[in-house]
Amino acid sequence: MSTNSLLLFVLAFLHLSGLYTKTSGAFSIEEATIDDLQLAFKQNQLTSRQLVAFYLKRIRRLNPLLKGVIEVNPDAIFLADKADRERKANTPGSSVGLHGIPILLKDNIATKDKLNTTAGSYALLGSVVPRDAGVVVKLRKAGAIILGKASLSEWANFRTNGAPSGFCGRSGQGKNPYVLSATPCGSSSGSGISVAANLAAVSLGSETDGSILCPSSYNSVVGIKPTVGLTSRAGVIPITPRQDTVGPMCRTVSDAVYVLDAIVGFDSNDVATREASKYIPHGGYRQFLHPLGLKGKRLGIVRDPFYNFGNDKGSVLIKQTFEHHFQTLRREGAVLIDNLQISDVDTITNGQSGESLAILLEFKPALNKYLKQLVASPVRSLADVIAFNKKFSKLEKTKEYGQVLFEQSEFLSRNVSKVDAILKKLVSNFKKLSKNGLEKLIKKNKLDALVAPSTSAVTSVLAIGQYPGISVPAGYNSEGVPFGICFGGLKGSEPKLIEIAYGFETATKVRKPPTFKP
């Protein structure tokens, strides 16, 4: 029996026997929601120390196979004890929300502690950040326990076109916990893998184009890609500030909303948060967790190109599943407007909008700005990173995948004149495509949201428009690989999207724990 086969057998035995899903009492941590955990805290069935110890033990057992976590916080138990003391003393805020709840952060989100922030690359190992990322400041204020750093597609999938999703130099290839041979998708692969496999209560990912929605889909978790600027990107290793956004990846919509409530809001270190703060509803987002949230909602379906599935058996099953979900949406009171068209959608989805060029032009200055503000770092510029990768290719374990995107970004910055003028023209085109496309479609048809498969090209439509989207588990293909359904809308439409997503989740209850199939 191979090592992997033996490990799978042991995991299956432990799972079936329940040996690692229980605390000392009757409470089961595995698959528990934030509400479940807070109730267990209140009823003295669980402590934060026990909860953290459970996840650390599970990481030790499962992570050698899944590689969803790069490193764990050596202070996690200390932080858990602190949370328990605060709860015992009835410290204000110690009995609600994220207080005492362990969270994993994608390894491009800075923490000013004993954890590294490296984007999965050895080039940043040992670098020292000046401060916590803006979202981490808010998480700590809410009482969350930073459990560790989740793996990712190295450099948020912007080092090269050649590497598989979920691969990074520091941790290796992340595995889909449902079907180990399937892609976990990226770039927030580790965040999706870890939450799906119960290596943490909740997690944070980031998205430039598809990096929350796609791994959420493939790992059967809920992912919220917020309106750009709704959450701070300060202290997050950038791709492009124009499209980057940070959002939760969790097992349920309610958990994702708990996290979203904790991390949204103004941050003086991210200018985009000032404008986007106007979208935050008074009283937060939890008020929109309505079981009947679908009632009266107008949902648009753009079949071409988002539902252009193949004719093989697996694709037919997925198509049938979505048709069934359409019936469910109608039964729950939603109004579906079918066979809609987005103006110039092919320009966006076929890569002809200029999105890739714009990101290549924006990447170098954004990364250089991040690297220069580090207290200490082996690299201070994109050119340094490229040189590091060439010098230490064996250490990086990524020689075979190269760094073509890095090299293209560096080349363009040095050899293209009038970069600012080109970017201005490209961004103007994105605004035009978005205004005449999704914005016009939604306003003309009085839609509350667009509905599409989470892994479809809808991610690019949302990306260039800086629009939000929520992915919810929708099913499993013939091999057991998960897929999700995405609800997308215009800037600031998170309240409606949450109502729709929660209503869909309540009506369908699709998600099930991973199976670790070979």
Describe this structure in words.
With 518 residues, the chain is α/β, with parallel strands linked by helices. It has a domain at 24-288: Alpha-Beta Complex (Amidase signature (AS) enzymes), CATH 3.90.1300. Helices cover 42% and strands 12% of the residues. It has helices spanning 3-17, 34-42, 48-66, 76-88, 134-141, 154-157, 189-196, 213-218, 253-263, 272-276, 303-306, 313-331, 345-349, 355-372, 382-391, 393-396, 404-415, 419-444, 458-465, 494-508; strands at 69-72, 102-106, 145-150, 167-168, 172-173, 202-207, 222-225, 245-250, 298-301, 335-337, 449-453, 469-476, 482-488. A hairpin with a 5-residue loop joins strand 12 and strand 13. The protein starts with a helix and ends in a 10-residue tail after the last helix. 54% of the residues are buried.
